[in-house]
Amino acid sequence: MTDEIDVREPDQLAGVPLPESRTLTIGHAAARASVMAALDNSRLPGGILLHGPRGIGKATLAFDIARTVFARTGDEEPNHIAAQVAAGGYPNLRVLRKAPRETGKGFYTAIRVDEVRGLIEESRLTRGRAGFRIVIVDSIDDCNAASANALLKILEEPPAETLFLLVSHRPGGLLPTIKSRCQSVALRPLGAADVRSVLGDQPGLDIAVALAAGRPRRGFEALALGDDKGLTALQGWLKAPGNGAAAGYLTIAETLAADKEGASLAFGKEMLRDWIAQEARAAAESGAKPRLASASTLWDKATALFADAEEYNLDARQTLISLFDAIRRHALSHLVLAPVR
């Protein structure tokens, strides 16, 4: 007999508390303060868009805000509210995520329009508790075209004393009309000390914090992988990809591609995407148009390489080498070489 695990998200990490179970938000103090100021002044908007990189605690903050609003506008004790929110049973809270399939195997690939329509119908009913009603959409990026348009309708005319908290990892892909209906709150990756506090004291913490790059979720993933030599080597190489010969990254590609479970390879791909995205931002901020054009080309290349490798089951090692070659050429052309030590 095995213990049943309450699986509420398709990408839920084993042994890691869900956002609704975390009663302490670490970091994002300024973002939280801005929402609390609106609450203090009775000026909460109908919708708030919490956006930023994946895994930095946006959903955790959304549930923190929800608990505070319930406590301030309702008539129940904070501890009682927190327990019901964690259990998924607080009457004034609705959470929209990808739903489990009726077969019990896996989740749907998107938040479906029927779920949003059901939400709209519920909003017309008498609320279950005194105080605000809150809807957390985690994440709005998972809505398909039909569900996004249905959600837009209720955002355009939200019911009284109802707050929508939309979590987004990629706000650039959202409907402009959805963004215009929400107060935008940008969140940033956490500092190393905050990431360390979220992860807690456990073996491999220093490596996990370094690999997390400000994202606690990634830190938990790194802890699950243990002392991964391939990822540590990739992290070192990305600090100065124009230095050294190609033999260095050939070994990295070999190591990551040999991962039979695929977790290290997936983690490495995210590291590469992050490096390219950061390079594009740096290029844009510097005003160096050739560098920005090259970084944009790198992004397109990485997207195409990873998509083709997945669709056609191509060799992971060769896919990585092709991208490493392109990154090294970009670095040699547009970045200052790091000093040799």
What keyword list fits this structure?
5-stranded parallel sheet; Rossmann fold; about 350 residues; 2 domains; 14 helices; 5 strands; elongated
Report on this structure.
The protein is an alpha/beta fold. It folds into two domains: 19-186, 3-Layer(aba) Sandwich (Rossmann fold); 228-334. Helix content is 53%, strand content 8%. The chain contains 14 helices and five strands. It has helices spanning 29-40, 58-73, 78-87, 113-123, 145-156, 176-180, 192-199, 205-212, 216-225, 229-238, 247-257, 263-286, 289-312, 316-334, and strands spanning 47-51, 93-96, 133-138, 162-168, 183-186. A five-stranded parallel β-sheet has the order 2-3-4-1-5, sandwiched between helices. Helix 10 (229-238) packs parallel to helix 12. The chain is elongated. The N and C termini lie far apart (56 Å).
Tell me the CATH topology of the largest domain.
Answer: Rossmann fold
Name given to the CATH homologous superfamily of the largest domain = P-loop containing nucleotide triphosphate hydrolases
How many structural domains in the coordinates? Answer: 2
The class by helix and strand makeup works out as alpha/beta
The gyration radius over C-alpha positions equals 22 Å
Supply the CATH class of the largest domain: Alpha Beta
DSSP helical segment count: 14
The percent range for helix content is 40-55%
How far is the N terminus from the C terminus?
Answer: 56 Å
